[in-house]
Amino acid sequence: MCGIAGYTHYRRACDPERIRSATLELLHRGPDQQGFYESATVSLGAARLKIVDLQGGDQPVMSERPPAVVVYNGEIYNHAELRRQLEQLGHRFRSRCDTEVLLRAFLQWDTACFERLRGMFAAAIWLERDRRLVLVRDRLGIKPLYYHVRGPDLYFGSELKAVFAHPEIERRLDLEGLDHYLTFNYVPCPYTLVEGIRKLPPGCWLEWREGRIRLERYWQLEFRPVRRSLGEACEELDALLREAVREHLISDVPLGVWASGGLDSSTILHYASELSGRPLKTFSISFRGRRFDESRYFREVAARYRTEHAELDLNESLDLASAIERMVWHSDEPSADAGAVPVWFLSELSRRSVTVALSGEGADELFGGYVTYLADGWARRLRWLPRAARRLALHLLAAWPVSDDKISLEYKLKRFVAGSLLDPGAAHCYWNGAFSPREKTAFYRGPRAAPLRVAVPELARRIGYLNQFLLFDQLHYLPDDILYKVDRMSMAHSLEVRPAFLDHRIVEFAASLPEDFKIRRGRLKYVLRELMKDRLPPVVIHRAKEGLDIPAHQWLRTVLRPLLLDTLTPAAVRDTGLFVPAAVEAMVRRHLERRANLGFQLWGLLILFLWARKFRIQTPGRSVREPVPLAVGSSARLPA
């Protein structure tokens, strides 16, 4: 696991210290070794966290003359298999690391090699003879990669901080990205919140060659149901999970498992315990004394598999405000997902004992694990009622006193009925805690971005009503919220987290299942529950999903109230030129006076303002836009 950075300097001199400055911004991602490569045209840097081949895997890795060079972030789990194939083709290796396998695979098969890789990765490969630079990102977007095009040159990095190391790049707020942030609670790829900087889309590669760039897709998910019985599906999923977890256990450093006591993490722990041959270390976050505390579940699972268990209780006595300030720096872009707080502390706890942790991320988006998928179906029926009746119901629900619970029945019902007044796609996103178009209009004065379509009738007819929402979440919510959050919070503590469910073979398998194998009679992740029902404790199989999150509504009224009031001041809101101070002040007042539960929305605004201040983002002054990213499959000549 590493952080990578680089840039081209086409027809111009370069400062030899620039690549070092950019790479040092990523030191938390790779504290064990830093290396650089510089030529007349390109500068590359890598900060390495040593996981495999501790002695021989230093980066950059270079081939024989004429040089080909790679800097790389991630893990390729089938690197041993690929190494054997390449050796049969005449390649000779100097190390055991997967980085060298990636470079030689590229030299053998060029960009076609990416389809052969299993794992999580972001990489840059430079071919000196061709003066050609290729960036690539894994299929699901587990590992991040940002890029910026300026004149004929390309800048890139694992995090925005590495791109910001170049002083010529201005830090202007991207208003399209901002509107998406308010709509979704995250910034969907390829947008960012900084003008001119984009994310490389998952499953894509980008080529720079003497000032010309091209963006291509090498993998795309297709939902095509395959006829099979439930028993056959369980057998196939069992084999896929066993192989994926076996590969994810490869490590030359201490390894553990994140355990929440839920179905997903317990499934990973089950297979890891079978395959490891020794007791595993597990790590959990508790909320003692609260209704949503999961201690009884993860303790029972830890006892069943005889793990070396460690847990941390997340409560108001911790220095939450200080942790949030540090989280904002490491987040790069604001994360409106308050679940980043427990992930921060879980990563800190885990890193005391291990360097690698397996997690259960991805199963909800693959197999239908969120209650929002049930809400999508319920709302479809509710919309047969006249809008006037639904508006009246929402008006009556407003009299229900607000609750301090993390996600109370009161909050769910009010949000569900309000969402039923939106179109299906907007409602699906709204239920994740974002702002509706009407709510944005009340306090936001910036331009609106072109909408990302989530519910399209033609798509629903082709792949299914549920599958359209699963597809949207796999394309956007999963990489740009869930995986983004986990990557930044874990790498802030130099911890590698591996989501075994996101082996692309499991992803493709899930897309081939009929919808009723995912949700059946209100049972979420039906096929996964059927597979694990005789393997995990019944309490884990039948419990409702809780989710690793904080009680945002309550904490913003109590322990985080000073941070909220000190950040969302009328002056700070006015200075943006984008928000209405009186409207934002009214939102804060309504929440603090317990007239509405707006904790998740206010959390998003709080983190946004902290981020803009910490990174000195210019708002809203906009001049000429930087070049927008190319559409996949296109190319263009950049001005010299």
Identify the notable features of this structure and list them briefly:
640 residues, alpha+beta, Glutamine Phosphoribosylpyrophosphate, subunit 1, domain 1, Rossmann fold, 7-stranded antiparallel beta sheet, 26 helices, globular, disordered C terminus
Question: How would you characterize this protein structure?
Answer:
The protein has 640 residues and is of the alpha+beta class. Among the domains are: 2-220 and 624-637, 4-Layer Sandwich (Glutamine Phosphoribosylpyrophosphate, subunit 1, domain 1); 230-368 and 478-542, HUPs (Rossmann fold), CATH 3.40.50. Helix content is 41%, strand content 15%. The chain contains 26 helices and 18 strands. It has a seven-stranded antiparallel beta sheet, covered by helices on one side. It has a six-stranded antiparallel beta sheet with strand order 2-3-1-9-8-10. Helix 7 links the parallel strand 13 (255-258) and strand 14. Helix 2 packs across helix 3 (98-109). The chain is globular.
Helix content: 40-55%
- Mind describing the biggest β-sheet? 7 strands, antiparallel
Number of helical regions? 26
Give the radius of gyration. Answer: 24 Å
Residue fraction in strands? 15-25%
Q: State the end-to-end CA separation.
A: 35 Å
Overall shape: it is globular
Spatial strand arrangement across the major sheet: 4-5-6-7-11-12-18
What is the correct CATH architecture of one domain? 4-Layer Sandwich
CATH superfamily of one domain: Aminohydrolase, N-terminal nucleophile (Ntn) domain
Could you please say which CATH topology of one domain applies here?
A: Glutamine Phosphoribosylpyrophosphate, subunit 1, domain 1
